[in-house]
Design a protein that fits this description.
Layout lengths: L2 H31 L6 H26 L3 H24 L4 H18 L1 H4 L2 H10 L33 H4 L5 H9 L1
Helix pairs in contact: 1-2, 1-4, 3-4
Length: 183
């Protein structure tokens, strides 16, 4: 899967999740607390919250489709464990479930962004991009400048011993040969 697409999908998912919770909570408190507010205002905020919740659910389902089979099973088990822990903690501390849902959602998004290559099937994402005519460029890769090393190869040429002919030929006289012979 494309790293940039994964990052943007996780960011949009988190924003729509937070917006959905805030809008639904705000519309419910606005209906109960004030009697002078026209009913169209809390209803429009509730509709905005529901739309952002639907966006969150659609992004999560799309990312679930792109997961590898082992990761799908792991995500289902983690979701069930988190729901059980939320229910247990919410009975002890009221309204703590929202905080746990937010923390688990952000941690899941961070893990998805960091482990893009290991948990997603790249061919599935490419199939959906071709189906809907979507082109997403990945983050530009930094080009490392490769320094060209100067070639300093030493080529050894076998050298023949050059002997100076003047040194090798001795001029010998008859006297020097006789002296050498007597010594």
């Amino acid at each position: 899967m494309n790293k940039r697409a994964n990052l943007f999908l996780n960011i949009y998912s988190s924003i729509s999740f937070l917006l959905g919770i805030v809008c639904i909570g705000y519309s419910l408190t606005l209906k109960e607390l004030s009697y002078n507010v026209p009913t169209i205002f809390p209803t429009s905020i509730l509709i905005l919250g529901c739309i952002s919740g639907l966006i969150f659910i659609s992004i999560e389902l799309f990312l679930f489709l792109l997961l590898k089979n082992k990761m799908k099973g792991l995500e289902i088990t983690l979701t069930i464990i988190s729901l059980i822990s939320i229910l247990g903690l919410n009975t002890i501390i009221p309204f703590s479930g929202f905080l746990i849902i937010i923390l688990l959602g952000f941690s899941k998004d961070i893990i998805r962004v960091l482990l893009v290559d290991k948990i997603f099937i790249p061919k599935e994402f490419n199939k959906y991009c071709k189906m809907f005519h979507i082109t997403i460029k990945d983050f530009p890769k930094k080009k490392e400048k490769v320094k060209k090393k100067e070639r300093t190869e030493v080529i050894k040429i076998p050298q023949e011993e050059i002997v100076d002919k003047s040194i090798s030929k001795k001029k010998t006289s008859k006297k020097s040969t006789k002296q050498e012979a007597t010594i």
